[in-house]
Fold this protein.
Amino acid sequence: MAFSNEEKRNYLAELNKQSELGGGEARVKRQHDQGKYTARERISRLVDADSFLEFDKFVKHNCSSFGMEKTKYLGDGVVTGVAKINGQKVALFSQDFTCWGGALGKAYAQKICKIMDFAIENKIPVIGINDSGGARIQEGVESLAGYADIFHRNVQASGVIPQISLVMGPCAGGAVYSPAMTDFIFMVDQSSYMFVTGPEVVKTVTHEEVTKDELGGAHTHNEKSGVAHFLCEDEDDCLERVRELLSFLPSANFQKHSKTPTNDSTKRINTSLKDFIPTNSKKPYDMKEVIMEIVDDQHFLEVQQGFAKNILVGFSQVGGHKIGIIANQPQILAGCLDIDASSKAARFIRFCDAFDIPLLTLVDVPGFLPGTTQEYGGIIRHGAKLLYAYSEATVPMITLITRKAYGGAYDVMASKHIGADINLAYPTGEIAVMGAEGAVNIIFRNELKGLDGSEYDKKKAELVANYETEFANPYKAAGMGYIDEVINPEDTRSRVYNYLEFLQNKSVLRPNRKHGNIPL
């Protein structure tokens, strides 16, 4: 019996309705009751209106084990497709918790792989919205194979297209490794969880009692582990911040960045910075205020804000030029480099370098954090990551020393010697092997040994003052060409902009090799 065109259209409409209903009205209501949107609602709220084109809407699994043949959902529990965000093309997938708790099976994984392949081939970012209980146990090893297929594509896409993960529910077991290999992870307070093994397994194996939130909640991964990059108040906040992040990113590597129009004059004088750096070199100040003075419209998107707070990283613009910023934070640990700060900055630098985003480094660093905790934890290895990342980078790099730049930390923080193009310093800059007091204690220890009381204090103060006059300034380094220009703080924005203009066509040839061996 032949079907009329109207009957065919009605059948298509019915299939679309079934697919869009996901796991059914009851499960959708349960999702809403938990303060969560459905997979489709998340997509519609993230992308530009009427821009989503869905792939594989009618895909179903072929599993017949454990009665699975009795339950099939069109789309198989994940929504995939392409869309635009702020006019920028993206590929995306959104896991549907209303279908088997979002559990991943073979067909589900193939849908994700297909959209990732499409993103790589067409050079557009890929966004994954994660909300899943893990592998579909009924499908056994095929589920595990599906995860591995996705992991492999995460690696192939790395440094080619931006990869963004939104964890908007549970993400457990092997599933965590796909987000972990993407460039940025967003988590939502009170509803996002990531862990390799859950609280029950932890209790059984180690006898530790811990809640899901304590073990792998949004605060844990944004403040303690550093696994996540953005902590969001709710799902709406999360989706809005993803849109903000994308505004700073190119669609793929080797794509020329276009300048973004701004009404913030590049000749604006930074009057508030004129006397901002404290005269007392031990007195802290907020480096974020320096950043806000330099960038367009005081807009700085900080990355990993809650983790390793002694260093700041994030995206901004100067005169319309998109840039990545790395800055020591004197308010926290005096701006010292430690294990977490080194790893945080190194990974950010490598992302920016992969996507040709120029780097601005603001330096006020007294050195590496001392202590057995740091040494036993491998500060040498982790500090080397930061050194490696800067040395490997071929993007335009501008460095500004606002105050301290001591010892090996001077070298590591984008010094002229490891590849920075332009090195600037304020008159308050102090470039030396170490601080004046420490240097005097070593250099003049024999001279001071025989003195005591007021005589010792007087002589030491004199020696410290002489050392500060001789070395606690940027002019020795400037005299050797290690500092290209000593600038007044009020001229910072205009100088950074002008140098960015001249560095637009920078090109660097690197040795022919498969890849280097960064000290992981």
